[in-house]
Amino acid sequence: MVMKKFGKIIALLLCVMASLSVIACGGGNGSSVGDSVKDDAGKIGKRGEKGTLSLNVYAAGYGTDWITSAVSLFLQDNAGVKYYLEASPLALSAVKTQLENGNCKDDVILVSAADYESYVAKGYIEDLTDVYQSVIPDSGKKVEEVIDANVMADKVINGKKYGIPWQDNPPSGLIYNKKMFERYGWTIPETMDEFWTLCDKIAEDTEGSVAPLTFGGADGNGYLYTNFPQWLSECYGADGMKEFFRLGSPEVYSVQQEGRAKVYSTLARLTKGKTSKGTDITLDGSVGATAITAQSNFINGRAAMIVGGTYFPTEMVDYIKIKNFDAGYMPMPHINADKKSIDGSKDTSNVLFSADNGVFAIPASAANKDLAKQFLIHMLTEKSYSSFVKATHGLLRPLKGVKVNTDGFDAFTLAAFNGFYHDDKAERVYAVTPNKVLEKDILAVFFAYEGGFFNRIAGAESYEAAKSIAEGCTANEISCVLKKWDANKNEWKI
Question: 56 forms bridges with which residues in the sheet?
Answer without folding.
Answer: 86, 109
